[in-house]
Design the sequence.
């Protein structure tokens, strides 16, 4: 015995000796649990040990760090049990004997999995005493390694995602690589056009020094050179114009391509993320990220970045020319440059934070739109227009203030830079005058140097204005990469097993699931034969929809496994697995498109005959014919409005056409009147034939055809059996059934 | 009771006859000699495939017969059906768009195969591009106008339509 328990969790080292000394001869530690709260819910350390014969507990007795532990021990009698409950972030582990509670330990939600492990060990211990088979552990379907409940995925074969340390903008280079040729070409053009635009100034010097100044000083001047210089200038200007044209177009095209790639990549990634991600994100926020932020990036790449590159080139080239012409003068001119660089550096962080905040505010505003426009009926029904206007105004104000703050920083910064550049020019002038006084310097050189320096500083100024655009783009890039860096919580298997066409047997083994800290399924075991129809019944919040979500693999189980055709569903490629599943939801969603397209949504290659056949089987054919454009009528948002029953029948036809092996009906008929329900029932009968069907329904009459009914209550299966059996058993189902019959009779009267 | 006239339907006939009665209603007589007055032929895919999938419904909208392909029918029946379908369908073909006002709802002046007309369009969503260069315009009253080929319109019409497509 070395202080390590069977499940590998070590004792805290400073308590190890003490703990070992408490153990009896041959006693084995099965599980260790460290509660981190005391009875008053203050943070404190503690220790609970489960051994093969006792439960031992220690705490620091209100004197943390003293090293003295107060120990207690309880022998495990046949009626002693361990229980754990969690609520609102804190939990309690209880040891209960036949006469009452023996001991209890409180812990924060973070220790929950550890507590669950101790309960599992306890269950194993009990099982081994009773001679029952041990429950199934969750193992990775790809490599066989155990999966710990807290991460729900195999750490052995899917490595932790690494968050890249490079800032968002630099990571854009990944997207520029496919268009490298275009971009390099664009930069060559930039170089050429910048060079060409510098030539005219360069030609000023000989024009002044060789022609104009000698002439002014009444020396012989060669005016024959003037046309040459002038035409050189014109030629260079024309060349610069032509090259600039090519440059702007090439680079704008390249950046448009890059941001289009970025958009579609982000959207494609978004589609692959699991429902868990969408549950935690607001629609408007996601929309803003994909549309607004990528547009900002495009603007940045196509306008600012190109300018930036030109500016840098221009600055480097003018600096070089200056240095070759008059190094001292050039050095003087560059004096204010470090100060400006320092200022830019200082203001950068503030701008980035500001733009990020503005982005968040913008997202919040889009969220309000995405929230209220689809929900406009509710808004109007409750006459809450004014409140919605206020809500929008409120978030609009936030956008305003975020931008206002930015503007304040910017408003100070921008004129300061201008001041710096002006003072730079003043330095140059005074230095130049001083030098002209002491050393002979030609007016031509002086003019050219001043011309270049003016240009140099105007470039610096425009480059600094870029700081703002850069930070805005960096904020946008961060927001987009936040999506791209998200790893789907329903991971693709490393060594996938092709599901092909499944038989449709489903085997749930000790399935547990939690949303955050709240466990909603507490260990379900259920075997479903191929072709069986199972009705799932239970009060709201019993975990019915969660069960369905797990079978569809919208989420992965926390503990346990779901086997379909005796293979863990986590070893199927997600998409291929879902091809075997058809779902009819309570409120079916129709996409914008024709009815035929909507029916063929799950099977885009379906022929017209197949579509019509599916619609007939779903009892949708005749009402479709009555629409002005028949199967070519547009439905969905902006399209023809259909009633709930009609939409439901289209969604049934949709499910029929994919011919799924496993069919899921999630409250498919609950929003529909009984007359329509009868039609839909007939449609459903066509649908459930020869398929494994799981149907959730509140209206129990819908489940008449089910082979077995599974009654869920508070995350546990409480009853399984046929309608008649369950009525005879007089349990939860019978109670629900009676309640519904009373309501129905109430309606009849 | 549904007749799936297969690929061989041309020879055997559709299993029913059609004629107009004294009130102008279309009367269908099925194989058993039963008469259904006031039947209506309906195209299931009027836009994507008008010649395939025609349903003959009774006055209550229940389907009596399904015709896979109009061209499989004997000429006499087909003639009656086609006449009836043309009479039921009012979908003028847009030949030229003369003017469209700038603000929504926009007023359109057009020339169609049934003469010149003007109509109101509620929103730009009511111009719906279909596959292979066709487009359907639905006016404020629900009247549909078909553009069989956008490429064949004159330059002015195309320019006016541009902002809707």
Sequence:
């Amino acid at each position: 015995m070395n202080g390590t328990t069977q499940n590998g969790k070590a004792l805290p080292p400073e308590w190890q000796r003490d703990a070992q000394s408490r153990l009896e001869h041959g006693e084995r530690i099965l599980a260790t649990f460290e509660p981190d709260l005391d009875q008053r819910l203050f943070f404190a350390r503690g220790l609970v040990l489960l051994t093969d014969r006792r439960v031992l507990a220690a705490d620091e007795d209100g004197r943390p760090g003293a090293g003295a532990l107060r120990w207690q021990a309880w022998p495990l009698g046949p009626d002693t049990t361990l229980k754990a409950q969690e609520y609102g972030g804190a939990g309690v582990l209880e040891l209960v004997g036949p006469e009452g509670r023996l001991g209890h330990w409180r812990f924060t939600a973070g220790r929950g999995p550890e507590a669950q492990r101790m309960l599992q060990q306890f269950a194993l211990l009990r099982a081994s005493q009773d001679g029952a088979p041990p429950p199934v552990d969750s193992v990775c379907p790809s490599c066989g390694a155990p999966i710990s409940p807290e991460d729900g995925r195999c750490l052995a074969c899917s490595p932790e995602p690494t968050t890249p340390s490079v800032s968002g903008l630099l990571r854009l280079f990944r997207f520029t690589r496919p268009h490298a040729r275009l971009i390099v070409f664009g930069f060559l053009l930039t170089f050429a056009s910048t060079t060409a635009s510098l030539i005219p100034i360069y030609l000023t010097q000989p024009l002044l020094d060789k022609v104009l100044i000698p002439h002014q000083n009444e020396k012989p001047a060669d005016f024959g050179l003037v046309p040459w210089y002038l035409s050189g200038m014109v030629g260079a200007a024309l060349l610069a114009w032509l090259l600039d044209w090519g440059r702007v177009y090439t680079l704008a095209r390249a950046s448009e391509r890059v941001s289009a790639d970025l958009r579609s990549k982000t959207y494609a990634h978004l589609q692959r993320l699991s429902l868990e991600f969408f549950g935690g994100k607001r629609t408007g926020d996601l929309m803003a990220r994909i549309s607004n932020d990528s547009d900002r990036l495009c603007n940045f790449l196509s306008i600012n970045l190109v300018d930036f590159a030109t500016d840098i080139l221009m600055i480097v080239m003018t600096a070089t020319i200056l240095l070759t012409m008059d190094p001292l003068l050039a050095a003087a001119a560059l004096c204010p440059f470090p100060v400006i660089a320092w200022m830019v550096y200082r203001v950068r962080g503030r701008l980035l934070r500001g733009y990020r905040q503005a982005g968040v505010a913008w997202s919040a505003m889009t969220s309000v739109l995405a929230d209220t426009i689809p929900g406009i009926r509710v808004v109007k029904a409750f006459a809450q227009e004014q409140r919605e206007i206020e809500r929008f105004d409120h978030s609009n104000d936030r956008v305003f203030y975020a931008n206002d703050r930015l503007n304040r920083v910017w408003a100070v910064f921008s004129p300061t830079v201008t001041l710096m550049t002006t003072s730079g020019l003043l330095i140059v002038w005074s230095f130049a005058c001083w030098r002209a006084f002491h050393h002979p310097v030609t007016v031509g050189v002086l003019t050219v140097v001043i011309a270049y320096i003016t240009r140099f500083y105007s470039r610096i100024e425009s480059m600094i204005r870029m700081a703002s655009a850069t930070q805005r783009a960096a904020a946008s890039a961060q927001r987009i990469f936040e999506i791209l860096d998200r790893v789907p919580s329903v991971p693709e298997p490393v060594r996938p097993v092709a599901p092909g066409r499944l038989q449709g047997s489903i085997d749930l083994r000790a399935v547990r699931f939690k949303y955050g800290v709240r466990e909603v399924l507490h260990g379900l075991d259920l075997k479903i034969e191929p072709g069986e129809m199972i009705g799932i019944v239970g009060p709201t919040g019993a975990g019915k929809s969660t069960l369905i979500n797990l079978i569809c693999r919208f989420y992965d189980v926390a503990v346990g496994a779901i086997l379909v055709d005796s293979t863990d569903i986590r070893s199927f490629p997600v998409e291929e697995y879902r091809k075997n599943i058809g779902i009819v939801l309570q409120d079916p969603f129709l996409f914008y498109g024709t009815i035929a397209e909507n029916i063929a949504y799950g099977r885009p290659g379906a022929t017209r005959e197949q579509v019509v056949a599916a619609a007939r089987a779903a009892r949708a054919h005749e009402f479709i014919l009555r629409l002005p454009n028949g199967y070519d009528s547009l439905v969905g948002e902006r399209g023809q409005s259909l009633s709930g029953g009609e939409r439901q029948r289209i969604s049934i036809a949709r499910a029929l056409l994919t011919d799924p092996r496993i069919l899921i009906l999630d409250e498919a008929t609950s929003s529909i009147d009984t007359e329509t329900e009868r039609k839909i029932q007939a449609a459903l009968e066509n649908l459930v034939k020869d398929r494994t069907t799981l149907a959730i329904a509140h209206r129990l009459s819908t489940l008449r055809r089910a082979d077995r009914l599974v009654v869920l209550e508070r995350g546990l299966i409480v009853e399984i059996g046929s309608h008649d059996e369950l009525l005879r058993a007089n349990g939860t189902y019978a109670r629900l059934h009676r309640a519904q019959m009373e309501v129905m009779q109430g309606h009849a009267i | 009771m549904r007749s799936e006239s297969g690929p061989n339907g041309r020879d055997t006939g559709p299993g029913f006859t059609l004629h107009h009665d004294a009130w102008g209603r279309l009367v269908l007589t099925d194989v058993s000699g039963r008469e259904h007055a006031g039947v209506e032929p309906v195209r299931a895919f009027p836009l994507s495939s008008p010649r395939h999938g025609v349903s003959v419904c009774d006055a209550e909208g229940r389907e009596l017969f399904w015709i896979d392909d109009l061209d499989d029918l004997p000429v006499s029946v087909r003639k009656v059906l086609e006449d009836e379908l043309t009479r039921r369908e009012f979908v003028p073909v847009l030949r030229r768009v003369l003017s469209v006002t700038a603000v929504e709802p926009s007023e359109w002046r057009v020339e169609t195969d049934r003469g010149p007309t003007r109509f109101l369009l509620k929103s730009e969503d009511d111009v719906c591009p279909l596959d292979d260069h066709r487009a359907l315009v639905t006016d404020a009253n629900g009247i549909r106008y078909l553009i069989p080929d956008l490429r064949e319109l004159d330059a002015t019409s195309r320019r006016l339509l541009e902002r809707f497509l």
